[in-house]
Amino acid sequence: MKYKDAGVNIQEGYKAVKFIKEHALGTYNDRVLSGIGSFSALYDISGYKNPLLVSGADGVGTKLKIAFKMGIYDTVGIDCVAMCVNDILCCGATPLFFLDYIACGKLDAEIVSLIVSGIAKGCKMAGCSLIGGETAEMPDFYQEGDYDIAGFAVGIVEKDRIVDGSSIEDGDLLIGIESSGCHSNGYSLIRKLIKDLDKDFEGRKIGEVLLEPTTIYVPYVLPLLQKYKIKGMAHITGGGFYENIPRMFKEDFTAVIDKESFEIPSIFKYIMSLGVEEKEMFNTFNMGIGFVLCVERGSEEYILDELNFMGKKAFVIGHVEKGGGGVCIE
Length: 330
Fold this sequence. Notes:
Helices cover 32% and strands 25% of the residues. The chain is of the alpha+beta class. It has a six-stranded mixed β-sheet with strand order 8-10-5-11-9-12. A four-stranded mixed β-sheet has the order 1-4-2-3. The chain is globular, with a radius of gyration of 21 Å.
């Protein structure tokens, strides 16, 4: 009996690795000291004065179910990178490198290549290198046609440049940067509400709208950190406004959000029309704001202008008040 008889195709695995190498090499820079295929990867972090490494891991979640039903495999790779690098960005870190984990019931090298092409694209957008990962074929554990994707990002920040929320004060302003859609959260609820992925929605299949990849905020936020005092940052992921915005606070503050200060995208309005209450929406989805900055008064107009110049709509969505704790949406 051979390994292939048990459901694991080694030759297909070799084929997938060949494709992966081609995509990964396009993300390399001079700091990558080893190639795909080694037992581990080496990355040079010389040149920093007092560096701290920052790490984060995440996955794409059940958005994958929609991707595979639609036969669209590349955009979820971008999602995987975005969910990790946006998280480590919140403390001011520059992403250095990324590793992925892809598991499936039956390996199809062509599909893995498409997934990894998206991961490589996301890495290029974030300015980091795809230096390793794992592709696991696990028959009887996953159904044939099912894939799971997760990733791990490592970034770096000088110790005196950490953004940790410790300088946030009463009266500071909250700037929200637009999202590209649902990003990678709330899809278990979405899949219960939206069954027909081919349904027309504003001239596109709604399945395509739901697969719009998560915005990678790294190229927009890192330049701001060099010029302005950004006191705190929040990536609006699972848990929406209520769970994520308070994560930037070190003390007892309330984030007061003006829901009229930004336009809620039509996809969220549609989901709400299917029977989801507004508070539940703000507790599950990003509602059109994917990343939040806490800044001192007087700098907001300059920051908004720079973000708009870079092609990202941004809004003053609220302010910080001492005491109370949590989020107040009014």
